[in-house]
């Protein structure tokens, strides 16, 4: 860890301005990922701008739905009664991640900025395009159990490790951001990006943009009954997903009005595909139908050796998660 | 029962309060004014040479005192023997910062010393290193050929064959053969390796070191640096887990002492979690088991071969295959053990080394045979029960394995097990039951102890052993208190200090047997003195008695069973006009007697698993571990030992692997987020049974040691249960969900 200066942001705008003028400055909130990365010299900011004193930790109703302040902790969000009642998929996904201690520190905004858990990204002794653009990808030919099978590129096969984001993707959340040049709203599907030939970029934000809140749309409440978050991993707690599935169904009797399926652990961003979800529109909740969704979602999937099993695992997990959701099993 | 009878009674840890309040201090927690901090720089490559190392940026940082590399570090000793320790295998020794050559990934190549930890860590990141890298070889399976391990000096017993296994196998009615593999594992004790070297005013070194043997660390340091024992005292009162990783002095000790001497400053060096993957590990092994049997399941031939890994510079060996010649009755046994040199650091003993991996494969093979011959796996084991140790051709000093099978099976409900795989299910979960046998050594080593009883009735007992978390403090306090009939809180046991009488390394499950016997003997020597003084008390009721006729109970010495005849210890010592009685003894095992017997602990492990039919997720729902481990001295800590062993067995079966990227020759999951050990959510019901086992041969206490037996057999029992659940046999550990898809 290098030496760095530290300041507490007094206002969103000034914090954004400070980072926009200093490329080696970084925002810090819960710090549950950034500090680890700093200890391993993966991140070497010269200045940390601490956002935690900003008044952004509220969870409140708006005319659009429920708004999660960026500094609301993962724990407070998961156990918020409104979230539990109207967006239980989000609660379940958050509680599937990390540990109680980490969830107490981690913020909702920060969760979006988690960096990949690819082994090579963390180890300075090995090349990694995400850490050091142009150095090469060690994971493609190396040990890639945690790496992606969808939307990968020749320069990076890393995955986004969040559980929370998979649920947010399924719920079609929107993200409100403020930068040095003003405010804007980003669709969740456009927040993160695929690695392409710029794997060092995890998302489509500008460096000075700060997430201020996340909106859960009111119509997401339709999925409060038939949903599940299925997380498959190498131990029962405190492990990142090999594959996770956020499945949510809006059902009319036995007929599916609308389906949402998002995958975690398989790509550089939560993986959704509208055409796959549309296959279930007006259809019955049957295994055959679910298998079609799985096949569509995994279309073009590519394994790299130690993660090839994820293709089959993801298909089975999708069918299971949709079956559970249809049966009202969470 | 007297109030001062403790052995066999549940006693809470005497050091429990100190541990939970933080009062117990560990090697990295001892402070001194002017302490400096060393941070280790680790090699990026696994094989090759350092061509350039530039520390100028680091040295220019305020607070940095020195950057030691192979270019400027001293070379205090030349000969390999100076670097030998009590657990080192034969071969050349690794000498930190002696040369530019890189022999393994994350090899220590520099030490930054600064006046704060933060500055040292930052400075370390500024040291620029260039390498000429060569291609490392770290894949044991790539060329599965090896050489025979050297014998003699190492204490390694080469596996002996008997009969004609090849012929018997060929002629057997039923034949079974399979190959098994498991990945390397790292010990990962919670406490990082650390040494705090305090340079005292007279120049002597007081060294707080994380080690399973302070005497071993002292010997290592004094030989290398040419110091006397008085000049290098080593202390280690508490240890946050060892599991074998502390059997050898690790490089932070050498580096901290070297820097302290060079700079004439007190120095602390603590390794990072990542660096905990830079020294010894449980080696991967590739094993083949062949079994020949009659149709009704009588073993006719056993062949067990293992290929293990070692470094390029030392020949690490472990007893992997010998168990196959001891577990069952069989006239034709062929055993082979080979090594392959890889570009990694030398492997290191890790809880039940050899046994836990060898038996994992062998007991899986026995299970596979049971399906081939159509006999219940428990019945097959009973059918081939070994009445004596056929490997050594000796009777067992005691072996209550049958009781383990019977009591374990009863508790588990084994009788209700359907024979066919895939015959139990609950929804999408397939349920399976499995069993395996475990075996480990019951050893006693030479050990010394000192007991000091003062006239106020307080007893201080000491020995240089360690408490690696196993409960040594508690067990020794119990033994001492019972021998002299004192309340537990009147007894203080001291350990982990080279000024105390010498104990062996804390390993091999021999501490209770070895140090416990020494403690008992030292306390008995004190008791004899008390007794002779008690006889001299005016009108002593003991005047005509011999030592054999008295007992020590509730602070008194009395005629056996006659409470009215008691003379208090205080009274006796006053009469003897002494303020204290001190006795030091060295206890040797009775080799003449012991050598006539095979001395082992045994276990039977029963497991219930559920496996998701589609997703492969595995949950170990129930474990019953029945242990034959001789006399149980401290039931509470003994149970904890077995519980811990079972938990680790679950971890080993399903989760643990140190994954090498063979291109870099580097362990890639070198942190506790990615190196998975079992967490609470993985652990469900565990039952521990200690069967009655009387043994007056193993040692005077009759205790066999329980540190290791708990883990042995668990992985095989789990794999066997998974087969019973799914019909799918996985022959590679860990059994992760992808292997069941």
Structure characterization notes:
Chain B: This is Xanthine dehydrogenase family protein molybdopterin-binding subunit. Chain B: Residues 137-164 are annotated as: Disordered. The complex is a heterodimer of chains A (330) and B (741). Among the domains of chain A are: 5-48; 222-326, CO dehydrogenase flavoprotein, C-terminal domain (Enolase-like, domain 1, 2-Layer Sandwich). Chain A contains 13 helices and 12 strands. In chain A, strand 2 (25-28), helix 2 (34-39) and strand 3 (47-50) form a beta-alpha-beta unit. Chain A has helices at residues 12-20, 34-39, 74-78, 81-86, 88-95, 100-105, 108-112, 119-122, 164-170, 188-191, 274-278, 287-297, 309-326, and strands spanning 5-8, 25-28, 47-50, 59-61, 65-69, 174-179, 182-187, 210-217, 226-232, 243-252, 255-264, 283-284. Chain A is of the alpha+beta class and 330 residues long. In chain A, strands 4-5-8-6-7 form a 5-stranded antiparallel sheet. A 4-stranded antiparallel sheet of chain A has the order 9-10-11-12, sandwiched between helices. Chain B has 741 residues and is an alpha+beta fold. Chain B has 3 domains: 16-23 and 445-588, Aldehyde Oxidoreductase, domain 4, CATH 3.30.365; 31-135 and 190-241 and 246-277, Alpha-Beta Complex (Aldehyde Oxidoreductase, domain 3); 147-185 and 281-443 and 595-740, Aldehyde oxidase/xanthine dehydrogenase, molybdopterin binding domain (Aldehyde Oxidoreductase, domain 4, 2-Layer Sandwich), CATH 3.30.365.10. Helices cover 23% and strands 26% of the residues of chain B. Chain B is built from 15 helices and 34 strands. In chain B, the strands form 9 sheets. Chain B has a 7-stranded mixed sheet with strand order 3-6-1-13-10-11-12, sandwiched between helices. In chain B, strands 8-17-15-14-9-34 form a 6-stranded mixed sheet, with helices on both faces. Chain B has a 5-stranded mixed sheet with strand order 20-21-29-30-33, sandwiched between helices. In chain B, strand 11 (205-209), helix 5 and strand 12 form a beta-alpha-beta unit. In chain B, helix 14 (635-654) crosses helix 15. Chain B is globular and about 80 Å long. The N and C termini of chain B lie far apart (58 Å). The mean pLDDT of chain B is 96. Chain A binds chain B through residues 1-3, 40-41, 117, 119-120, 122-126, 138, 141-143, 145-146, 232, 234-240, 242, 309, 312-313, 316-317, 319-320, and chain B through 44-45, 105, 118, 121-122, 125, 274, 428, 614-617, 619, 654-655, 659, 661, 663-664, 666, 668-671, 673-674, 676, 678-682, 736-738, 741.
